[in-house]
Amino acid sequence: MIVCVLAGLGGCAVPPGDATPVGPATPVFFQPYSAALDVPAEAVIASAAQAAKASPQVRAVVTGAADSVGSEKVNYYLSETRAQMVADMLVQDGVPEDRIEIRANGITPALSPIPNGTPAQSARRVLIQLVD
């Protein structure tokens, strides 16, 4: 079993199989009900792309999440769309598509406890985890 400990706002993404994380996961945050990338999100993704390009042996696991506002089905789709948007930007920033794995978690707990159904910025995220 892999145990992930959330560190600050970065958190962690579970790498596939026996992959080893390379540093902490990089969080990209979103506005409610949105998969649009704003300027701060694009800067975070560009930084992660630079790190990935500097180490050609690593892969990027891109894991989308959503808060608990709305249905499970809609939030799964939203988390998948967010992850795809981040992956597309990584490719645009020069990371080869075959080095990116996309995952969607749907409704994901916020990084700090809040009542269910309450919007949570920290749950509306995509984590970019570089893995060996």
TrEMBL record:
Keyword Lipid metabolism in the entry? The reply is no
Residue stretches making up the OmpA-like domain:
17-132
Compartment(s) of residence: Cell outer membrane
Record protein name field? Outer membrane protein OmpA-like peptidoglycan-associated protein
Q: Which InterPro entries match?
A: Bact_OuterMem_StrucFunc (IPR050330), OMP_bac (IPR006664), OmpA-like (IPR006665), OmpA-like_sf (IPR036737)
**Pfam families, alphabetized:** OmpA (PF00691)
Write down the superkingdom of origin: Bacteria
What is one GO cellular-component annotation here?
cell outer membrane
Q: Does the keyword Lipoprotein apply?
A: no
Q: Which UniProt keywords are listed?
A: Cell outer membrane, Membrane
